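Data card: per-record layout.
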Amino acid sequence: MGRRVVLDEECCIGCGSCAELCPEVFEMDEDAEKARVLLTEGGDEECIEESIATCPEECISWED
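The structure for this 64-residue chain is written out next.
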């Protein structure tokens, strides 16, 4: 089992940058006004790394 991408929805402020940068992995939950993970494993790691770096609240991380 590889690394999994994790998003702490409690700390998410709903900026949408992760969903814009990496739409195959993240999407915006319009009702909650927060992002959520669509694909926990197997996504484009470069895209996920960019989303991690861009998140203003540092809510996205890798889990082994």
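Known properties of this structure: The radius of gyration is 10 Å. The chain is about 25% helix and 25% strand.

See the next section for split statistics.
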